[in-house]
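User: Batch of two.

Assistant: Item 1 of 2:
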Amino acid sequence: MNRFGIFLIISFFLYLFLQVIFLKNAVLFHTAFCFLYIGFLFRVPVEFSRMWLILISFLLGILVDIFYDSLGLHALASVLIGYARNHWLTLLTPQGGYDSNSVPGLSYGFQWYLTFSVPLILVHHLILFYVEAGGFDYFWYTLVKVLASAAFTLIALLLIEFIFPRRRT
């Protein structure tokens, strides 16, 4: 196993640890939740196999579900993000293409990172909160939770990107 593989394994457990220990009870105004663990799915290299990404997404989601007692909600939303991420990356391919072993991040520019991350965060949160609500009975309240949580998660992910920058390889 190479150095980058070890780094991925360590970051997997670090994101999981941060989510279940520190961010489980971090709620703003009883509305905004931070789901930083999806940041790990954003930090996986572009060329990573879709099958392995979906499997890792499921594993990460089910581990979060175990600590949150949420019966597979995070696994469902994470698998959807793991599946959609590569499709979304192909739509956002830069003019010169992606470099070998490149990792999506701010190294491609702030606007590119927002275009990459915001839709995936919104899809994750929409699935998570509307499935948790059991339908559209509380549509507006759930939508406020989705938007507030997406903003909270995006700010946390941007802070991580600024604190631990990666260079384009």
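Item 2 of 2:
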Amino acid sequence: MRAVIQRVCRASVSSEGKLLGRIGQGLLVLIGFGHGDDGAAASWMAEKIVKLRIFEDDAGKMNRSVEDVGGSVLVVPQFTLYGDAQKGNRPGFDAAAPPERSEPLFREFVTSLAARTSLPVPSGVFGARMEVELVNDGPVTILLEREKQ
């Protein structure tokens, strides 16, 4: 399981002209699933993201979580996180879990994230073509990966 986590001033996701989710200060999480990912991985990732201390405290040190700052978390499914462009010029996606496995994991991840916080957790739609807008704060971008156990 892979996540790209961006600390944002604001972010939104839309599809076919319809706004799916919008947040102010918080985290934009792009999430992808690989073969072998399961509910335990989704739970681990949700817990890690909620507790990740990447917001600055009064001393300017990254010491606060998204909960500490009263932010929100916007989650967008993105299978292209498993794109491999090592050979050739067109990425291959063999390492990405198939949609019939990824979609339930995406729903489980969002549910697990929402259960761990009282913060808003809007999300994109699995399998939809989406437009994501964001203002990265810092910029701060973290790549988080849970290897298969």
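The first strand starts at residue 2 and ends at 15.
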